[in-house]
Design brief:
Largest sheet: none
GO molecular function: nitrate transmembrane transporter activity
Helix content: over 70%
Number of helices: 19
Order of helices and strands: HHHHHHHHHHHHHHHHHHH
Number of domains: 1
Protein name: Putative nitrate transporter NarT
Shape: globular
CATH superfamily: MFS general substrate transporter like domains
Main location: membrane
CATH class: Mainly Alpha
GO biological process, one term: nitrate assimilation
Subcellular location: Membrane
Radius of gyration: 23 Å
Distance between the termini: 63 Å
Length: 470
């Protein structure tokens, strides 16, 4: 049983929030943005935290690892939860419960307590899986890659915005007369309150699927029962393609998470004359590319699929992942600021297109276990971030750590060529793709006819009124 009445267009209905698919799209990207902002809100303030609490380089490395480690567990679990209770309730509870450790980190007064809160905050990173799940059930095959990539990309913007927004919030508290120690703590309390409110809004403004919530659909027999969810989850885990995508996502999103954690410190420590705010602004340029880069990955994924079917999505994934690895290797060799910044942006472009390309493939691996696939692949991103975190925790210079990671990403790109689909699956998805395209064209044609008819009505009314006056 598949979800029905998915939207066949994103951009033509973009501001029509009366459509549940579009309203959900906007809520899910904003919720993910809020989570991402909260997840990495402390990263640009680590310069202050490090000095106040006296962290060593090794301890900073452990906080980087902690921030993404718990998310691995969260993403495995949250995909299963989405299949059982639906993305609406899953997101609502994640946001509300996640607000407490985000605000609570302000209570940390030692490395151990700070590490514990950083570990707990990492759980809200599982929000990504719900975002991809929710847009996947709302949009048809011809546009699902674009919808997934855009919602995730705009959500990931939170990682860029926080790089300059948190230092500004911190500065406001300083201006009000608070100390450095109090200001970074109050800044995190503000963020915690925001995601709490977003969680409440998500409950009232969205629903699980185009035709209703999962509970209602199960009562009508339009969706598989909860009891079957666990079985399909383990079936998805047995699919080698899921684990190939797990490692691929480790090589793109895992690297983005790592850069979000270390970029401000990297530019502050490795380039002369960089202030806290300047380092944050430079680091923000990496995350801000999400405003369009991840969307491009999804758009090209959909376009490659229109030309070469599902295998076209895999080819595109290989191309952008290879570009990411090469760009990162070049960035690691830049030791002059005016060369490092453009190379960081190019590296960011390929990284985020790779993420969009990955989740243009995910919805087609196993539709009956969409949550399982989305969760496992999403967990791969955090596994990659944990692995990369150990390089930055070691005695290796950070620029050499970037070089090693770039080489590994180039090697991982080859894995994309092993994501294959049966001829029957290719044919089935091609038919569904073409059907969705046709429905989208018919919808646009109907709107055009309505617009013409409305124009004629206006002209006729004008002529009739003018004739009466004469």
């Amino acid at each position: 049983m598949d979800i029905q009445n998915k939207a066949t267009s994103l951009w033509s209905n973009f501001f029509n929030v009366r459509m549940v698919q579009i309203r959900t799209f906007h809520m899910t990207w904003f919720a993910f943005f809020s989570c991402f902002f909260a997840w990495f809100g402390i990263a640009p303030l680590m310069i202050i935290v490090r000095d106040e609490l006296g962290f060593t380089k090794s301890q900073v490395g452990w906080t980087i690892i902690a921030s993404v480690a718990m998310t691995i567990v969260g993403r495995f679990f949250i995909g299963w939860l989405c299949d059982r209770i639906g993305p609406r309730l899953a997101y609502t509870w994640l946001l509300i419960l996640g607000a407490f450790p985000v605000a609570g980190i302000g209570l940390a007064d030692s490395f151990e307590s700070f590490l514990l809160f950083r570990l707990m905050i990492g759980f809200i990173g599982a929000s990504f899986v719900i975002t991809q799940y929710h847009t996947s059930v709302m949009f048809a095959p011809n546009v699902v890659g674009t919808a997934n990539a855009t919602s995730a990309g705009w959500g990931n913007l939170g990682g860029g915005v926080t790089q300059f927004a948190m230092p500004l919030i911190f500065s406001i508290f300083i201006t009000l007369g608070f100390t450095d120690a109090a200001s970074w703590r109050f800044s995190m309390v503000v963020v915690g309150c925001v995601i709490f409110v977003v969680g409440i809004a998500y409950f009232f403004l969205t629903q699980d699927a185009p035709d209703g919530n999962f509970k209602e659909l199960r009562e009508k027999g339009q969706l598989e029962k909860k009891e079957k969810v666990t079985g399909t989850y383990f079936k998805a885990m047995a699919d080698y393609r899921v684990w190939v995508l797990f490692f691929i996502y480790a090589a793109c999103f895992g690297i983005e998470l790592t850069v979000n954690n270390v970029a401000a410190l990297y530019f502050y420590d490795y380039f002369d004359g960089i202030t806290l705010v300047t380092a944050g602004l430079i680091a923000a340029s990496f995350g801000l590319m999400n405003i369009f880069a991840r969307t491009l990955g999804g758009i090209f994924g959909d376009n490659f699929a229109s030309l070469w079917g599902l295998r076209g999505r895999s080819y595109w994934l290989f191309i952008v992942l290879l570009g990411e690895g090469l760009a990162l290797m070049l960035f690691s060799r830049m030791d002059v600021l005016f060369l490092a910044i453009p190379m960081l942006i190019i590296f960011s472009l390929f990284t985020q297109m790779s993420e969009g390309a990955t989740y243009s493939v995910v919805p087609f691996v196993n539709k009956k276990a969409l949550g399982a696939v989305a969760g496992i692949v999403g967990a791969g991103g955090n596994a990659g971030a944990v692995a990369a975190g150990f390089l930055f925790k070691s005695e290796m210079p950070w620029n050499n750590a970037f070089l090693v990671i770039g080489i590994m990403v180039c090697c991982a790109s080859v894995l994309a060529l092993f994501v294959r689909f049966s001829p029957e699956k290719e044919a089935e998805e091609k038919a569904l793709f073409e059907k969705a395209q046709l429905e989208g064209l018919e919808l646009r044609a109907a709107r055009a006819v309505n617009a013409v008819n409305n124009s004629r009505s206006v002209v006729d009314e004008y002529n009739r009124t003018h004739a009466e006056k004469i």
